[in-house]
Amino acid sequence: MSANHPNQQHVAFRQGSDLSLRAHGLQNTPPVQAISSLTSQPSTRQKRTLNDVTTTVAGVIWSLSDTIPSLRNIKTNLKDNVNIWKTNGTSIDPKKIPSAIVVQAVGSTLQLKSNNRIQVVQKYEARLASGCSEARRAQENGSWKQKKEELLIPGLPSKKFLESDDNPRNQSENIVQDVFLHSSKPGYFYVLWEGWAVDNLYELSDIEVQQSASEAVRLAQIRDAFLDAFNAANGTGELDEFVAREKYLDRNVRMDVNHPFWTFKDLTYFHTQLHADLEKGPVFYFSLETDMQNPPNFTYTNVNVVREDAYIRCLGRLANQNFSELSGSANTMRSSTACSSPQHCKCNQRALLAYGATAAGGPVRLLQYNAEGLLQLDNYNFDDARILVECSNTCQCSPENCHRRVVQRGKSVAIAVVNGNIGYGGYAAEPIKKGQYIVEYVGEMYLLKERRSKENVAQSKKMKAQPHANIDFRLTQTQKDEMPDVHALYINRPAKSKRGSSYEAGFSVIDERIVICASKVGNVGRFFNHSCNPNATFVEVHSRCFESDPLIPKIAIFALRDIAVGEAITLRYYSDQQMKDKRGMKCG
Ligand SMILES: [Zn+2]
Ligand SMILES: [Zn+2]
User: Fold this and answer.
1) Where is the SET domain (predicted)?
2) Ligand 2 centre from 279 Cα, in Å?
């Protein structure tokens, strides 16, 4: 198996001038000389020989060649390296893109059907990304241990190797976790190795670093461009010291293996690796404070973690029917591929049948992508009920190329999470266009209990009492009778709460009883703050690659306008009425 991590979707884009440090200015960096010959010796940590390098690195540190392989392209044979979604080590196989993880209720005897895309587990646990072989090895054999409770975070290794460890280094190649421009030695980087504590930061020349870790350099380039833009937007200079610490490291963090700074770097690296498994954009975490102590503590997930009750509810809904069931005829849209002419698209008909949604508005407004895959949001109104329906295999279009399959492909943008004087916030780390998909809002998906009628509870109990009942992706008529679809009750209701408590996001069109909570389990979407004049919005998404799969609703975040690098991404969580009721304040 191969762990081919670099996010190919973003490579071409990010190597453009927008993100080169030359474009953003390298004010604190000494000028870099062109390197025309290799004079430095390879580090002891590098098995690769440097003799075959033919590329001459130009005068700018960050200019990279696509042909230089990343160390993360190495092969691994770890037993637990199971999450490989790629075919031939190059592109992701749509059949293997996960859409949800279902967690069985304690004591449940239901046998829930699963497939490549829907995983059923007894318990959700944080995991390392597929390529992190050195981190896995260190977690077993490393002698450094994280001792501070507040720095123990699910999914981050709590053990690392120290230089003094007597460990066999020839078992696998070494992996570059992160690189930082050397503050006093022109043309050199500090290099942090995956699985190794910071008692020994290597210093490598730019040619060595680029040759062995082009992906780490690419990510550092995006990171530093973000920091410069963020600092410039702040404009006061009060962040200079913290930005310099992030870019060049300072003595305090370099000399302190236990400094919380390194926990933020681990969050950055391991969450980015989880994203890279699915070709999502990187995530960066920064603490721009003197006294950094509290990294965000939650379990990262790329997909919704669905509790059993919510899952069965999804299976029982009208919208879960496949297209021919829904339309009452297999031939309604014969031979139409439709994506290029929306009025003939099956997806639009499906939206009408399942939700009463049309592009013209009405009780529920059907949103559309343009030909570039950007959401059309021209007459956006916060209080409108709205839904987005993406193509599936019944549309016969290309899963890789159709412009109406954006959320299901899941390629998110680069995002920075900053802890500053207003607490945590999420920021654009690459330019985002109006209508562009930013990231999905994922977390634990569950049913709101307080809205359950006595009748529903009784029916649900009856169902759970059946020993080893098989729950298929389509419920039997008896099962459906026991889990009545209440969608029809809600179809004409106006949009209500988008968010109850601080990390809960609800659906108002697809299902009012289902909620996604990102408090304990979530992704980078949980860091975006409220604004009365937001630049992004939540959209309920009906999307599955295969009609035979369960329809598990999604909440996606799209840009309402162009967002520049360094700008906060904000959402509106509360309606005018909620603002008055709950907070005694008002937008506008
Ligand atoms: Zn379609
Ligand atoms: Zn399509």
Assistant:
1) 411-574
2) 20
